[in-house]
């Protein structure tokens, strides 16, 4: 039986079920061959979804989908289970998305069959910390993944093309890290490459002084990713610090 991962991308109106819905789902499978190497299987798939409420102009400006495009399309709860579980047939080892926390707002466990998730954003921070940015499209043009057909990956911000682009990042991550490792990184907070905001914005954590790190940790209350990254850097410095020399032994006093 072939092992595969299913990359998912959603286009939505709003940020959650409370203020919007899914208007399109895209997917792209990445499978492991007999030689252990991972490769894209076929091309991307996509399906329009009726969100059940009007598509806002703000979100149409991103993905260019309007109410007329989704008229008569299936509803999310009807369409999602078969796509997420790859029915009919075996389910994927895991679902994958870039910034997976967003997709997980709609892809509830009950719909996906409780499949685990890989977040290619969090994994990219680990595999390519030197990248100038870690957005899906930013990585696309910085990395120029082998085999990525430009036309298939366009237009950006449509579910099928975006899933296709993400799948190339995933394939290349799997060349340096196995699935359990990607799942572990995805379950943890993001290990940021640079300070995300404030006076130190854009600075690499390794370049900051111990005092700067302590100040960031104090300011990071409520920001799990920032706190996690600062503590990670502090532990790295502690583990790489040279050992403290033992005090010189003092010989016995020669009393008269």
UniProtKB/TrEMBL annotation:
InterPro entries in UniProt: Ribonucl_H, RNaseH-like_sf, RNaseH_sf
Organism field: Endosaccharibacter trunci
Ranges of residues in domain Exonuclease: 4-179
Record region (Disordered): 232-256
Record-given protein name: DNA polymerase III subunit epsilon
Transmembrane segments: none
């Amino acid at each position: 039986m072939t092992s595969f991962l299913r990359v998912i991308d959603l286009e939505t109106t709003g940020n959650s079920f409370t203020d919007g819905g899914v208007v399109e789902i895209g997917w792209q499978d990445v499978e492991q061959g007999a030689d252990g190497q991972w490769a894209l299987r076929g091309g991307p798939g996509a399906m329009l979804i009726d969100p059940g409420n009007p598509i806002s102009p703000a979100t149409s400006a991103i993905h260019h989908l309007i109410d007329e495009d989704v008229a008569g399309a299936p509803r999310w709860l009807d369409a999602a289970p078969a796509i997420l579980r790859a029915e009919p047939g075996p389910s994927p080892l895991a679902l994958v998305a870039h910034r997976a926390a967003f997709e997980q707002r709609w892809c509830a466990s009950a719909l996906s069959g409780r499949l685990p998730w890989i977040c290619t954003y969090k994994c990219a921070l680990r595999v390519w910390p030197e990248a100038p940015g870690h957005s899906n499209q930013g990585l696309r043009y910085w990395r120029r993944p082998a085999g990525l057909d430009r036309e298939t990956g366009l237009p950006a911000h449509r579910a099928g093309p975006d899933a296709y682009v993400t799948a190339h990042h995933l394939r290349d991550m799997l060349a340096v890290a196995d699935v359990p490792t990607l799942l572990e990184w995805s379950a943890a907070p993001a290990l940021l490459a640079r300070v995300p905001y404030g006076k130190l914005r854009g600075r690499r954590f390794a370049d900051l002084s111990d005092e700067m790190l302590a100040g960031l940790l104090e300011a990071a209350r409520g920001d799990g990713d920032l706190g996690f990254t600062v503590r990670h850097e502090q532990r790295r410095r502690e583990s790489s610090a040279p050992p403290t020399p033992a005090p010189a032994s003092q010989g016995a006093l020669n009393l008269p």
